[in-house]
Amino acid sequence: MRKIFLILLAILSLNQANAQGKKTEKATFGMGCFWCTEAIFQRLKGVISVKSGYEGGTLSNPTYEEVCTGATGHAEVLEIAYNPMVISYDELLEVFWKSHDPTTLNRQGADSGTQYRSVIFYHSAEQKALAEKYKAELNKTNAYGKKVVTAIEAAKPFYVAENYHQNYFNKNGSEPYCRLVILPKIQKLEKVFKAKLKN
User: Fold this and answer.
1) Mean pLDDT, 10 residues at a time, over the chain (199 residues)?
2) Active-site option among 33, 36, 68, 178
3) Known catalytic residue: 33?
4) Which of 50, 113, 118, 150 is the most exposed place for a label (fewest CB within 10 A)?
5) From CA 170, how far away is CA 35, in angstroms rounded?
């Protein structure tokens, strides 16, 4: 009996370790300038970390200057680590769709070029299916009055952007760009997704 109890205890411990190991998942979104979008996702409950970087191009370890030429094929993206027990991928997609204009090809506001394209890099078949379903629904209901052009692609190598790009709004909130461009996006987030924000 004691042996059975010890085996059951070992199995339960293993299952608990597996469940704890699954507490973090990854989402990768490109939605224009990563300075603007990083600040949005950092404020969501369940988001553990947000890294600004580059994905989807042909050059290994690209620099910001190289990506800005548009010649490398990379998009400015966010790699988001999140706890799916607190915030679902579906909820992250909702914030993604409502925090930028997914109908403009290779452009967000004044930022123009393929590096500013609207793109979802999925990390699983489930993420791909959810993103495609959501996009199809937006187009079917004509939610934006124009067709959603967001690309949905398999994740590719992610390259972390230079240190000065990380945590940009929190470090430079008083700069004119932050006050004029990023702050209104955060204010919109606070209105639309108040219940999802960290305290």
Assistant:
1) 46 46 88 92 97 97 96 97 97 96 92 95 98 97 96 98 95 90 89 90
2) 33
3) yes
4) 113
5) 10
